[in-house]
Write a structure and sequence with these properties.
There is one protein chain. The chain is α/β, with parallel strands linked by helices. The protein is built from 14 helices and 15 strands. Strands 1, 2, 3, 4, 5, 6, 7, 8 and 9 form a nine-stranded mixed sheet that branches. It has a six-stranded mixed sheet with strand order 14-13-10-11-12-15, with helices on both faces. Strand 7 and strand 8 form a beta hairpin. Bound molecules: adenosine-5'-triphosphate (ATP) and magnesium ion. The site of adenosine-5'-triphosphate (ATP) has 20 residues, from helix 5, strand 11 and helix 12.
């Protein structure tokens, strides 16, 4: 039950562009918000409304912080603001603007402007008049604040709709499209910096994410597995959860070490991972594979070796980082909060077996031929039988 109400105004992002598809997008946006808020607050402790291109979330003031955490990690909204909701008389609106101004000054802000929008034309002041009168009222109440039309430190927003909404602290949302509007993809998630960012980027285009992690126990440690689970938890907090498939690849790697020319071992391992991942994807209705590969970042990511890696696949492989340099990827990892975990120093299965002199420009026919010689079918079947699934992150829409 909502007792002490807090109000949030949400501005949808690219949804406004989606013409005929718009209804479907909006339905999924609503569903995602309801799922996340229900899981965090309980179904009775919030209300979600949408009218005239805005969404409104109402919750208890005591749960404002957790609600804001959810909004900060929600794909599909361009911005959000905690608002004062008042009746639609000029006096109530001006008083709320003054209160907002007081809060701005307490936060050390010295300049502001008013931006007003009036959807309800029966309100007696025009948008321009609201700006002038509210600006005056704020300055009278808080003399240390000055109006600055160009580059103010803060903007007080006034929206006259079914009610009047006033806010001084509008936040940028993640933008993008609601998760689930673009089917699902299977992310190859290592413990590195790149793959969590890759998954996050595709989620931002509306893709639901499952993930697969290949480990080589006892060559790789339990800590390494825990680290990947933590990464899946973080990425999953943006994607309505992630189902993480943990696959033991030790026998496959040992076979590669025994039978493949050492220079080819990383490319062979990548081909085996891709084949296994494709089978998991098909079983779980994922429409593509997603990797954190970036062109020429390491030997296995030259264009020739990437071509070898995907040469036996039918599903498309999406590589959202392909044209990004490492610094940019690191900055993104920091901003989505995965970086600190990614740099924990536990060996990945690739590094354990990696050769000193890997082939740089593999020939695809040769790669296929070598790969067939490895006769991995039974080993892959076995590995897939032992698929252990971890549910990570926010309540998974996958479960619904
Ligand atoms: P990352 O930082 O994500 O580990 P990287 O730069 O270390 O990337 P590689 O180790 O060459 O690159 O791996 C390339 C991609 O292959 C990874 O981004 C990931 O998608 C996939 N991958 C590598 N190792 C694994 C693994 N053990 N389990 C699942 N996927 C993996
Ligand atoms: Mg790696």
């Amino acid at each position: 039950m909502i007792v002490n109400e807090a109000t949030y105004l949400l501005k949808p992002g690219e949804l406004t562009l989606k013409g005929g598809n718009r209804e479907g997008f909006e339905r999924i946006l609503r569903r995602n918000l309801i799922l996340l808020l229900s899981a965090a607050l309980g179904r009775k402790n919030f209300r979600l409304e949408n009218t005239n291109g805005r969404y409104y979330v109402f919750c208890n003031e005591e749960e404002a912080e957790i609600t804001e955490k959810i909004l900060d990690r929600f794909f599909g909204i361009a911005g959000w603001a905690k608002a004062r909701k008042t009746g639609k008389t000029p006096e109530e609106v001006l008083a709320a603007c003054a209160a907002e101004g007081r809060e701005l000054s307490l936060r050390g802000i010295r300049s502001f402007k008013i931006e007003a929008r009036r959807t309800d034309k029966s309100f007696p002041l025009s948008s321009y008049e609201i700006c002038c009168r509210a600006g005056d009222r704020v300055r009278e109440t808080v003399p240390c604040l000055e109006v600055r039309v160009k580059n103010p430190e803060a903007v007080i927003g006034v929206e006259i709709r079914e009610k009047a909404f006033i806010y001084g602290d509008a936040r940028r949302g993640l933008g993008g499209l609601p998760v689930g509007t673009a089917g699902r993809g299977l992310l190859l998630l290592s413990g590195g910096i790149d793959s969590p960012v890759a998954g996050w980027m595709m989620a931002g285009r509306g893709m639901g994410i499952d993930a697969v992690y290949f480990h080589a126990y006892p060559y790789t440690s339990e800590e390494a597995r825990q680290k990947v689970i933590t990464l899946a938890e973080i990425v999953g907090s943006y994607t309505l959860g992630i189902r993480l498939h943990c696959i033991g690849f030790t026998k496959v790697q040992v076979r590669i070490k025994e039978r493949a020319p050492p220079a080819w071992s990383t490319v062979m391992l990548r081909m085996a991972m891709m084949e296994c991942a494709e089978r998991i994807a098909r079983r779980n209705r994922c429409r593509c594979l997603i990797t954190g590969e970036s062109l020429s970042q390491v030997a296995s990511q030259t264009i020739e070796n990437l071509t070898c890696t995907q040469s036996r696949l039918k599903l498309p492989v999406l590589r959202p980082l392909i044209g990004m340099d490492k610094d940019r990827i690191i900055r993104m990892a920091e901003s989505i909060n995965t970086y600190e975990t990614s740099i924990l120093p536990y060996a990945d299965c690739c590094s354990v077996f990696s050769p000193a002199h890997p082939i740089l420009r593999g020939n695809t026919d040769e790669a296929k031929c070598l790969y067939e010689g490895l006769q991995l079918e039974n080993l892959l079947d076995e590995a897939l039988k032992e698929d252990k699934i971890e549910k990570c992150g926010a309540l998974s829409a996958n479960e619904k």
